[in-house]
Thiamine-monophosphate kinase
Amino acid sequence: MIEDKNQQRTPLSELGEFGLIDHLTKHFEVKHKSTIKGIGDDAAVLDFKSKQIVLTTDMLVENVHFDLSYMPLKHLGYKSVMVNLSDVYAMNANATQITVSIAVSNRFPVEALEELYSGIQTAAAVYGVDVIGGDTTSSTTGLIISVTAVGEVATDDVVYRSGAKPNDLLVVTGDLGGAYMGLQVLEREKEVFKVNPQNQPDLDMYTYIIERQLKPEARKDIVKLLKDLEVKPTSMIDISDGLSSEIIHLCKHSDVGVELYENKIPLDPQVISTCEEFDIDSTTVALNGGEDYELLMTISQDDYPKIKANPNLSVIGFITEKSSGMHLVTRAEAKIPIVAKGWNALNNQE
Ligand code: ADP
Ligand code: MG
């Protein structure tokens, strides 16, 4: 489906492991003062003075987490950085460094890895993180990418999943369900392409949701926004698996219950129209679709005046005593229990 514009195919063996590492990493520049030594020694050296350090890692496996028939390698590189930075921002921290480890089979030419690394480099530049190392090895099957991200945060600013209190407001950034509906469109086009490779899909009416799937953005801006507004959330988590499962995580870790209002869940018009086209319920998609990489947080009611006018933040419910349970209040004002499905449930992969 995605045309390979780069016709040159240099086999990996031509460069060898060290030549390849050098080739892929030579353009990376170190920007943070905390990076004492980046790529090039046995280990990187970092110095964070009195800050606390957050560290997180995520692995992406071909045909489990991504499908190269519609995921351009450049986007894959970008996204693999985003999924990690999102976890750093969910701690209310500032991302500073990443390492990137890849396992590749020799079906990938050097040019393919250049594409992957151009996406990684773009992400690192846009989000201001130093690439300080990684590992390169061979794989007999698909492509595997593992990114580790490091961030820094003042001790008093760290936000855990565990701090939500009854009466706190439940707040979400951006809008939900876009990445999942983008995936549905891409999967459908893939099937069409299999039958008729000459078919040029017209995806104009899906640009937002496809971008949400192929080029998600981590919410670095929210960490800054919260600081500017002088709001410290009582708890926070990033939405990688879908709203319902993240709400359950927050409630379990905080020992509280929740009431979530269906009519408050933010949805983009393209999500609503595509849900209608696919005959899927948009609330189900917001609750169980994954990969939106928005932030879900709880804030004290006292902070409500500071956030209420902000278009990036939607109040979608409030925290209750644990004994009240976790409920979705529907548009028809019925109360139904929130259950974890994660996004696999929608794909029937469980
Ligand atoms: P070692 O044998 O000590 O593991 P390597 O030869 O694997 O060293 O790596 C040499 C340097 O290149 C190290 O700084 C390592 O972190 C970095 N590096 C290796 N692979 C990658 C990669 N895929 N992306 C970024 N840096 C890498
Ligand atoms: Mg190594």
In short: The first helix runs from residue 16 to 25.
